[in-house]
């Protein structure tokens, strides 16, 4: 999980990936390239396959064909934890925390693998200074220090979303994928979350799925537009704004 | 030898069909509600005991209808007042509830009817040999059991393929997540499915009671085999449950019928070696091993195909 | 021991007051174990204490699976039983070979017996969690229990394997002939195992086990393979169950197939769940209560197992956190100082709830004793099971008690909600 990544080519490279459930092709000939250190947003109408794309890259589901590369290495077919250990971490659209454990425990669990403690059963988890410091730092970053002893299931919705981001970045992954991190948040909460994401992913590669266009255009360096399991356009926010295909497919859908 | 093969095949299919009467209900309930009903074998036992008691009071034929209805009613009550309230605590709590129920039912049954086997007789009408193969008389009652199981099997198929409820059940089998979208009557559908499943188990109990042993430990001894059947077939798969029922029914019946051991096939071990694990294995007959055969099959399938024969789902 | 396994984010050693209380609880527990046989010195109570000690180790080992990792096992007695057999064989081997291993080391071999089987079978078993694991554990349990009757040379068939604990080399002059000495041996291993199992909850593996319990899917995305976590937890649970089985073998000087059977597996599930799986001390409470009830009830009524079933069903339906969960529910109220507002509603509920319970007991005993006609003695009042007066009394108590008790329980729920809301507003959530 080093910071020097520029010599490895693209952070994420998706080549000709297909995903079929039975006879239904959810993802068709998906090609996507995310450069090192880039903030890349994936947008598209509902049901376009954005979450499926996330699941394919992060190993949650396996592609029917095609390949996914992380920092140049093929990762398609690997299990999620193997991909995570190679430096890719993701959040979930539906809040997916450890509900019965406290906020502190949630973040600490996410720190443990990266700090090398793995399955250790001979160490006292409370007396690992680097784990404690890193956990405290992340809690501070996501503004949940005052809630550290509350079971995660009892947090407010916005707090759970923040915790979700905290768990995602806690392991120190260089590639962070966030699935609709601001969904269901109020304006003020969204602003807070965006500045949080901007700060926490500094110097990392970020892939984000988002419905809120102000978030997308404010945050992303590049944007890919996914429609019916296929990327129809990829480019800078300006290029995407001007692209007629995008206007037709995406904005047309919005107008309904 | 041929005689043994024919008789054992008949008995094996019969046992397999009985298992399917139970495992089909269990599978449908599991698919729709996510609950593995630990007390399913207890409903089977209740069927046998109710059958026995009602036969004593009003005769076998009314009992054949009434006892399953009674068991079905109990099943519906369990769903309505037990499982529905436990649902919010998750599937483990639901499984534990049915585990507690199974335990309580066994205790209640042995409290009322005692722990020794009951004298549950084959009805006089069916108490004659149906036919004679080689030198063995095959009892008519077993043919009757087979007929009932097959009729229920066909009826289930028709209900599943031809009725609205059947469509819902089928949808639930393939898309368990969609069950929540069934609409406002989902509670009633669950209760009905649970009731029918329990009634089928009860029916299996009524007809199996006279042929097998009716005793308060019959649920505890059949239950684990039942769970092997549905894990072996693949959780949530009806065809899987059907195949697994027949496989386990046949394998176990044949095992019981076979008297051979390694010693009888290959000759005795050198007696000077003394008793050891090897001599235990060498001298045990296949019939003695019969009780563990289903569990050995379970371990093998878990290693070879963790989803079960026809299973598609993770959990 | 009162620290919640899931919420010990405040390191006990952080504050000197917390640390004092933390070690104080442990020292108090150890002191109680030492003093107990001096206060209750009859043979009967020593036997009971010994059984309770074994049951606690067994239940705590089970909670590594159920409470910590979320694995519901119906076959945990397999490890207990194999531990018992391993201990018996080891004791006999020590005697026949003249090895210099004294009795106090034997439970370690019991633990190894439980562990080795867990290591072999665990990888396949823990591939999947949830319902499938539960079913597989049941199947494996049956497999081992049935096999034990076939492999007579190892398991001794129906009669089992006997041993003589006093034939082993003496240690510090103790021959372990008396129940008192056996009690102290069990107490020693109880303390050792409890500390070890508590420590396990506070290791990286222990915490990740909790995470696997809460959300196995998410764990994969923070770098962990839930299968490995489940497997390791399974091995630890197998080891400590084996220790408990070894202690049982020492206590009874026999191991037989009943040790590994479904009844024993059900017993540990009942103890653990009734005690409460969410807190480390829950299974301790449960093991004490269930063992004590088992010993006490078995003399009073033939239907004692049914009472367990009913208590268990009641806990599953109305208090899935068990007794420990019920107790710990009150912690925020105590800390916020609002507990006194709920006490009156508790007092109101006592009478109808007791009446309802008496009605249930009367009903059960009437059915259980109907054929023998043996009289029922309920709090000094005699009832004839064949008399209609008894039936009417039972019916009135059950129906009337249930009706009034439900009203009073509703009152409790309302009073509790009010108190909890105030506590939450004051910042106490747990």
Could you characterize the architecture of this molecule?
The complex is a heterotrimer of chains A (256), B (315) and C (430). Helix content of chain A is 36%, strand content 23%. Chain A has 9 helices and 10 strands. A 6-stranded mixed β-sheet of chain A has the order 6-7-8-3-9-10, with helices on both faces. In chain A, helix 3 (103-112) crosses helix 4 (129-141) and helix 5 runs parallel beside helix 6. The termini of chain A are far apart. In chain A, 48% of the residues are buried. Chain B has 315 residues and is mainly α. Chain B is globular. The mean pLDDT of chain B is 86. Chain C is mostly helical and 430 residues long. In chain C, helix 7 runs antiparallel to helix 10 (226-252) and helix 12 packs across helix 14. The two termini of chain C are 16 Å apart. Mean pLDDT of chain C is 90; it is low at 1-14. Chains in contact: A-C, B-C. Chains B and C meet through helix 3, helix 4, helix 8, helix 11 and helix 13 of B and helix 5, helix 6, helix 11, helix 13 and helix 16 of C.
Strand order of the largest sheet of chain B: 1-2
Q: Which parts of chain B are unreliable, with pLDDT below 50 for 5 consecutive residues or more?
A: none
Head-to-tail CA distance between termini of chain B: 43 Å
List segments of chain A where confidence is low: pLDDT < 50 over at least 5 consecutive residues: 1-6
Rg over alpha carbons of chain B:
21 Å
Most strands sheet of chain A: 6 strands, mixed
Q: Total number of helical segments of chain A? A: 9
| Oligomeric status | heterotrimer
Total beta strand runs of chain A: 10
Determine the structural class of chain A based on helices, strands and strand pairing. Answer: alpha/beta
**Largest sheet descriptor of chain B:** 2 strands, antiparallel
State Rg of chain A: 18 Å
């Amino acid at each position: 999980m080093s910071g020097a990544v520029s010599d490895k080519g693209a952070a994420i490279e998706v080549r000709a990936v297909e995903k079929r459930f039975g006879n239904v092709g959810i993802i068709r000939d998906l090609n996507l390239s995310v450069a090192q250190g880039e903030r890349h947003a994936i947008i598209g109408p509902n049901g376009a396959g954005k979450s499926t794309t996330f699941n394919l890259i992060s190993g949650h589901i396996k592609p029917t064909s095609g390949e996914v590369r992380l920092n140049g290495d093929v990762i398609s077919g690997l299990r999620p934890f193997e991909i995570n250990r190679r430096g890719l971490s993701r959040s979930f659209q539906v809040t997916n925390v450890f509900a019965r454990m406290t906020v502190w425990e949630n973040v600490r669990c996410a720190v443990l693998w990266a700090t090398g403690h793995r399955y250790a059963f001979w160490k006292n988890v409370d007396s690992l200074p680097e784990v404690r410091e890193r956990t405290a730092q992340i809690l501070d970053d996501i503004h949940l220090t005052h809630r550290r002893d509350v079971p995660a299931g009892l947090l407010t919705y916005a707090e759970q979303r923040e915790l979700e981001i905290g768990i995602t970045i806690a392991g120190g992954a260089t590639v962070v994928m966030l699935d609709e991190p601001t969904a269901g948040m109020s304006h003020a909460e969204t602003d807070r979350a965006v500045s949080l994401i901007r700060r926490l992913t500094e110097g990392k590669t970020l892939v984000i799925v988002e419905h809120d266009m102000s978030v997308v255009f404010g945050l992303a360096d590049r944007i890919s537009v996914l429609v019916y399991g296929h990327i129809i356009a990829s480019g800078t926010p300006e290029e995407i704004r001007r692209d007629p295909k995008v206007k037709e497919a995406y904005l047309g859908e919005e107008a309904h | 030898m041929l005689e043994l093969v024919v008789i054992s095949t008949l008995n094996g299919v019969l046992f397999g069909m009985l298992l399917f009467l139970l495992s089909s209900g269990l599978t449908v309930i599991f698919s729709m509600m996510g609950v593995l009903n630990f007390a399913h074998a207890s409903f089977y036992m209740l069927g046998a005991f109710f059958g026995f008691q009602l036969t004593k009071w009003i005769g076998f034929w009314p009992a054949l209808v009434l006892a399953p209805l009674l068991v079905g009613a109990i099943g519906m009550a369990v769903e309505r007042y037990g499982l529905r309230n436990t649902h919010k605590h998750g599937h483990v709590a639901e499984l534990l509830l049915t585990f507690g129920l199974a335990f309580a039912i066994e205790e209640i049954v042995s409290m009322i009817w005692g722990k020794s086997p009951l004298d549950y007789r084959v009805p006089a009408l069916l108490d004659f040999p149906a036919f004679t193969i080689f030198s063995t008389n095959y009892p008519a009652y077993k043919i009757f059991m087979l007929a009932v199981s097959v009729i229920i099997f066909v009826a289930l198929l028709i209900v599943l393929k031809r009725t609205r409820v059947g469509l819902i059940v089928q949808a639930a089998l393939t898309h368990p997540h969609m069950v929540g979208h069934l609409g406002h009557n989902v509670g009633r559908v669950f209760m009905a499915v649970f009731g029918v499943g329990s009634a089928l188990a009860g029916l299996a109990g009524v007809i199996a009671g006279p042929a097998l042993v009716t005793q308060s430990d019959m649920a505890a001894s059949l239950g684990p085999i039942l769970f092997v059947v549905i894990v072996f077939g693949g959780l949530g798969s009806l065809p899987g449950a059907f195949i697994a029922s027949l496989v386990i029914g046949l394998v176990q019946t044949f095992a019981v019928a076979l008297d051979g051991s390694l010693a009888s096939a290959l000759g005795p071990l050198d007696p000077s070696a003394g008793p050891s694990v090897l001599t235990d294995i060498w001298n045990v007959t296949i019939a003695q091993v019969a009780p563990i055969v289903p569990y050995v099959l379970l371990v093998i399938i878990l290693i070879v195909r963790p989803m079960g024969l026809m299973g598609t789902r993770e959990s | 021991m009162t620290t919640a396994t899931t919420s010990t984010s405040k390191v006990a050693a952080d504050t000197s007051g917390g640390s004092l209380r933390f070690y104080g609880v442990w020292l108090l527990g150890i002191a109680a174990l030492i003093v107990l046989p001096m206060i209750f010195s009859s043979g009967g109570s020593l036997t009971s204490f010994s059984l309770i000690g074994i049951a606690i180790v067994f239940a705590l080992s089970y909670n590594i699976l159920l409470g910590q990792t979320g694995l519901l096992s119906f076959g945990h007695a397999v490890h207990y039983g194999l531990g018992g057999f391993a201990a018996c064989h080891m004791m006999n081997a020590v005697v026949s070979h003249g090895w210099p291993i004294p009795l106090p080391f034997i439970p370690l071999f019991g633990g190894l017996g439980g562990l080795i089987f867990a290591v072999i079978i665990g990888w396949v078993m823990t591939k999947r969690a949830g319902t499938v694991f539960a079913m597989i554990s049941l199947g494996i349990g049956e497999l081992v229990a049935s096999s034990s009757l076939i492999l007579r040379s190892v398991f001794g068939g129906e009669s089992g394997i006997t041993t003589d604990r006093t034939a082993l080399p003496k240690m510090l002059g103790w021959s372990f002939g008396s129940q008192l000495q056996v009690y102290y041996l069990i107490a020693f291993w109880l303390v050792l195992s409890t500390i070890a199992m508590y420590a396990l909850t506070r290791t990286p593996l222990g915490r990740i086990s909790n995470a696997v319990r809460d959300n196995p899917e998410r764990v994969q995305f923070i770098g962990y393979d839930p299968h490995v976590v489940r497997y390791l937890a399974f091995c630890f649970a197998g080891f400590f169950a084996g220790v408990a089985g070894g202690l049982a073998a020492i206590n009874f000087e026999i191991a037989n197939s009943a040790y590994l059977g479904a009844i024993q597996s059900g017993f540990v599930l009942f103890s653990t769940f009734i005690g409460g799986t969410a807190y480390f001390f829950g299974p301790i409470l449960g093991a004490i209560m269930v063992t004590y009830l088992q010993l006490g009830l078995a003399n009073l009524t033939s239907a004692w197992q049914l009472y367990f079933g009913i208590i268990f069903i009641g806990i599953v339906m109305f208090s899935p956190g068990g007794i420990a969960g019920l107790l710990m529910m009150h912690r925020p109220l105590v800390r916020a100082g609002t507990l006194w507002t709920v006490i009156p509603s508790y007092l109101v509920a006592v009478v109808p709830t007791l009446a309802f319970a008496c009605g249930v007991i009367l009903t059960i005993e009437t059915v259980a004793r109907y054929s023998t006609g043996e009289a029922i003695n309920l709090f000094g009042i005699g009832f004839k099971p064949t008399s209609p007066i008894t039936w009417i009394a039972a019916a009135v108590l059950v129906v009337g008690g249930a009706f009034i008790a439900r009203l009073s329980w509703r009152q409790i729920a309302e009073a509790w909600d009010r108190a909890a809301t105030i506590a939450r507003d004051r910042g106490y959530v747990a």
